[in-house]
Structure prediction request, 357 residues.
Amino acid sequence: MAQTHHYLFDTSGTYNDATGSSNFTNVYGSIAGGGVVNQCYQTAGYNFMDPVNAYTSANILPTSGAFSVAFWIKSWSAGSNGGTAIRLGSTGMSFNGYAKNNEFGVVQTTPSFTTKTVYSAFDNVSWHHLAFIWSGTTWTIYRNGSVPTQYGTDFTPNSATYNSSTRFEIVTDTSGGGYYIDDLRVYDTAIDSTEVTFLYNSGSGTQANSGGGGGGGSPSPVTSAFYKFQPFVEAAMEKVHNLGSDQLKVALTNTAPSAANAVLTDISEISYTNCSTRNITTSTSAQTSGTYKLVCADLVLTASGTVGPFRYVVLYNDTAASKNLIAYYDYASSVTLANGDTFTIDFDGSGGVLTVT
Prediction:
């Protein structure tokens, strides 16, 4: 999953991009307490002359193809006619809500007002997680980790949506009041249901505060999604790995790995200057009733200075001549460790790192 931008809205007075480099410029809003995870962004309500509460100077969507936008939102009253939460300039598209009918959707502004909408219970007092996913041919909209009934038109985003100079704006319009938004993420791909569910389930304290400056540290608890590298299957069958005796190790990266990656040089690693040992201790490597299970001791990384940012923890065989890759963990958001911070990698003593049947 290629997450390109991530806004935590956790530090008062700043609206920085934790993954990329496209920061928001604040106009009327502010950082407020009571976010889904830590703090959040609070819009200031409708301003007749300019409804834009915050904006990026350049577009944070890709210039073509699939993309995904996910965020948490609360108190999105939207009025009787509907209200806009996020829009791509004045002629691109927007994510709108219609409180009167408990509807929300993605709206094409120009050349015609076209919408893909869902009906779902959508009160204005609770936090809701929304994900809008464009596959290149179809819109899919999630609310709180699942897809409600969808209707409307699967329009293709227009040129303004993909224009690199189109601003990405947090707005309130004439029929909407102020609201709260948190954990805004943008991807240059159509994320799948596993990623959406992970984002939704991570809204209770697992989001990392990425940015250092005393705000680093590991999420608590650290949770992740596990992905196997495809070449590992062949390597395991052709005597590349001896998981019972080889030294396994982790590599850290902030660049999404590809399932086709085979060796360590395929990974864009971060600097380990201030990081403690990344060697893994293998507890057991054995089969029971024909099912093999690899069990490793949890690894605690300790920072003696800034480490990161990183989002992906890659497991590889350091003994193998080509340092072949095994699998990686995706922690859903980038993490930066400050001096003294720790990051625990839970290798699951019960289920094991991996099993083969």
Observations:
- The chain has a mean pLDDT of 83.
- The first helix runs from residue 159 to 162.
- DSSP finds three helices and 24 strands in the chain.
- The chain has two domains: 3-201, 225-356.
